[in-house]
Amino acid sequence: MVSPAIALAFIPLLLTIIIRCRYYFVLFYRAVLVRIWKDCVTGLSREERAYQYVLTHATPGDPDSILDAFDVWCSKVEFISNIGPKKGKILDRLLMEQSPLTVLELGAHCGYSTVRIARSLPLGARLYSLEMDARNAVIAEKIIRLAGFDDDTVELIVNPSDEVIPLLRSDYGLERLDFVFMDHWKKCYLPDLQMLEGSGLLGKGSMIVADNVLFPGAPKFLRYIRKSGLYEWKVHRATLEYSKGIRDGMAELVYQGIK
Amino acid sequence: MLKEAVEEKKKLVQGLRGKPWPMKKKLVTLRESQEFVEKYEGALGKGKGRKLYAYKVMMSKKWMKFQRDFENFKTACIPWEMKIKEIESHFGSSVASYFIFLRWMYGINMILFCLTFGLVMVPEALMGRPYGTIPRKTVPRAEAPSAMDFAVLWDFGGYAQYSVLFYGYYNNQRAIGWLKFRMPLSYFLVGVGTVAYSYMVVIRTMARNANESGVGDDNSFNFSWKIFTSWDYLIGNPETADNKFASITTSFKEAILEEQESRKDDNIHLTRFLRVLANFLVLCCLAGSGYLIYFVVRRSQKFALEGLETHTWWERNEVNMVMSLLGMFCPMLFDVISALENYHPRVALQWQLGRIFALFLGNLYTFIIALMDEINLKREEEKIIKFNITTWEASLYNATGSENSTAPPVTFHPADVPRGPCWETMVGQEFVRLIISDTMTTYITLLIGDFLRAVLVRFLNYCWCWDLEAGMGAFYAPCLPALNVLRLHVSMYLQCWAVMCCNVPQERVFKASGSNNFYMAMLLVILFLSTLPAIYTIVTIPPSFDCGPFSGKKRMFDVIQETLESDFPAWFSKVFSYASNPGLVLPFILLMVLAIYYLQSTSKSYKEANVDLKKKLQTQNEENKRKNKLAALKAQTDLEEARAATQTAERQKNINASLQRQHAEEEEDLGSSQRKNGRPPPSVRHQDGRPPATRAPVPRTLHPDTHRSLGYLPGGGFPQQREPRMHRVPSLQRH
């Protein structure tokens, strides 16, 4: 058989791989293994566990404490891929600069980013949040109302984004979107962007922010925005939420309009 | 007159590139000047001389054109130039510098290959005795049935062993063929020549680089350097440009952080501890790899004693596989460990190279030490075989001589003669096998690794060429330079292809190129240390008695002595013997050491003088800057003051003029009283409403001397200002 010496010669390679990719291993452990274990043990889904925690540890009506409770849970107990505190700060800053009146959010998941955006909105602005999965939408609704945002500020739509975007103008009476936040499935970034362009809801100066374009990554999306020439784009480099070593980025696009 | 005009036009054409004109203007000027020169140049010569002059001019123009075309042709002939340019535009100049370095190595190896091939392999193949004529050139009877098997040939046994590829094939005949080619002498001199050529090339490159090396200090103006020199103008691909942009931004952020941390300057003990820990880990790794190699070589010796056929392919090639794998994986581990140390990237790279070099050297020397045991074993065997051969020959002679007294020529097939062990061929074979397995492992890992990790491609920026193995083994296997050429050739294509396929460049690339003296110095040390064992074996161990060009001599370098005695006239050998007298050589060596010391100290003093001059230049520049700034400030304040002065002067004048007019008007009004009562004096307002801008140029033109006088006499402005006030008072008084 293959001699033990050759097997021993592979040890440096194994060590290198383990040390270099240690953050990915940790992420895998937290996001997959711990989740499966807790699913089997408690019988609740991950989002429900998060909701339980937030309910017990945050003050209702205070979006900051809800977000903090979420952050604590995601860093210490389990991992959910919210936008996280660091990238969230970038998002807050962009919102303050832009002060949009109509905001569209694709992919609310637990409602973390919805609360984050709604917190920084100016008076009279309205946020439309899309969520495909019904159970997640229930949790998100509860959290948004817990944070104290009523129906005037945040409207949660439970439908996939590719069905809703063509109907935004007709059913919801939107004329123009000032700000779009994309945080749903990465492979849907590009089709949804193209649908938004086609629907005519983007005007000059509309800002689109897409999360997680580097990890897990949306390469087709990035290639498209580079080539199309319709956007002034920039990638904000940061680290993945609740993780120190994995590089990630948020793409910020400003629609320029067809020349 | 005409001649001067023509000269002027020629000068204009030459200096046209540097002029800051728009392109159209330049093209028009060029065409006009060229037409002028052409028309009138021929007219410069007088009479008969005119034709000759025109002819001369035409020939010189043709010659210039020919030179230009030749330059173009030479550039086109450089191998892989277009490929490297493509890589450069995709990945930047740092990656391309690695390939340029690789190409340089290819050139060197090509020359070495030509030397060994032309002067050693070809003469023996053409003019030496053909295969099968003498025992050492024939496959022994026992090995004959398996001599053509692919497995045996792949291991460089069988027919491959008994060929010009290895030392053992060469005959020790002093002169071969009709050319009387001195084969042993050629073998020895080519071996020495390859080493000497390698050294010379490396040292020449180092000397050339020392002239253009960066004498500037890397510590001051860090951010200025970064801002103005970060961009790579050879990039031609948009994605690369984006990546470069991002990497420059990242490097700025890191530099700022580094600056902040260096200001903070805490935890030096933690850093030191981490560095010591990292070095300790690296040493553990080196020790582990050395022990593993030693263990594996011992095991293979045990296998060899038991007979190689009883073991699997894996066990037979264990040594090569382990050495290649270790040589590939340990550098990665060193890289990861060096993240603990927190050095500046260039320093970290140098440490990394040093460690890889230590790894390769440690592996090589462990391998050689294990080989030495085998060599000694073989030499022991030689004595036994010598004894056996004498008994065998005696038995043969006895058998034939018993019939008649005169011994007929004993005919025996060369394949039947018992053969002495040939340790040189064995060493050559081991090294060849090592290089082949190294190559194969490299290629396979390259393919697998680059395809698996398509996002992060790391280039083998380490000195894995100029193989230690080649330096050592080339003497015992003349085919090694050929192998090396082939390897580099194929690897060039393979790496180019791998680079273009998995086209995400590394974020931070450093120049691993021939233009950096650190890499050259490393190569030199590696070269030296790898030729050391070969030289040692040449000098101490006697050559095998039964194979190779030096068989029968006591030491390999005896061939020089022999040549001197037989091929050169007698006085030459006498001179040489005087020259090689230790009494003469030692003082000569002493003189050279003193010369080196002297040159070193003068170069040090020149460097210091250089640094002093630079400092002086810098302080001079700063002085000039300061003076200029002061002068500019002073000029500005003077301007302000002069402006203010003339402004107030103008205002006073206007007020006086308006007051006087008011007086005149009032006197008129007094004459015609009630009409102009409530009307505000329009003239004053008009004059006040005049834009102050018109007053501004006035001081500059009217009072140039007050400008200067104001600077030297700070109170100079006042007398002028006082006068209007004094004028005002009497007018009021008049009222």
UniProtKB/TrEMBL annotation, chain A:
Signal peptide: none
Protein name: catechol O-methyltransferase
Family: Belongs to the class I-like SAM-binding methyltransferase superfamily. Cation-dependent O-methyltransferase family.
UniProt-listed CDD domains: AdoMet_MTases (cd02440)
Keywords linked to the UniProt accession: Catecholamine metabolism, Endoplasmic reticulum, Hearing, Membrane, Methyltransferase, Neurotransmitter degradation, S-adenosyl-L-methionine, Transferase, Transmembrane, Transmembrane helix
Keyword Transmembrane annotated: yes
Gene Ontology CC: endoplasmic reticulum
Enzyme class: transferase
PANTHER family: CATECHOL O-METHYLTRANSFERASE 1-RELATED, TRANSMEMBRANE O-METHYLTRANSFERASE
Transmembrane segments: 6-29
Gene3D superfamilies cross-referenced by the UniProt entry: Vaccinia Virus protein VP39 (3.40.50.150)
E.C. number: 2.1.1.6
Pfam families: Methyltransf_3
GO terms, molecular function: catechol O-methyltransferase activity
Subcellular location: Endoplasmic reticulum
Family annotation (InterPro entries): SAM-dependent_MTases_sf, SAM_O-MeTrfase
Alphabetical GO biological process terms: catecholamine catabolic process; developmental process; dopamine metabolic process; methylation; sensory perception of sound
Organism placement in taxonomy: Eukaryota, Metazoa, Chordata, Craniata, Vertebrata
The species this protein was found in: Perca fluviatilis
Catalytic activity: a catechol + S-adenosyl-L-methionine = a guaiacol + S-adenosyl-L-homocysteine + H(+)
Automatic annotation (TrEMBL), chain B:
InterPro entries assigned: TMC (IPR038900), TMC_dom (IPR012496)
Keyword Cell cycle among record annotations: no
UniProt GO BP: detection of mechanical stimulus involved in sensory perception of sound; vestibular reflex
A cellular component term, taken from the record's GO annotations: plasma membrane
Superkingdom of source: Eukaryota
PANTHER family: TRANSMEMBRANE CHANNEL-LIKE PROTEIN 1, TRANSMEMBRANE CHANNEL-RELATED
Protein name: Transmembrane channel-like protein
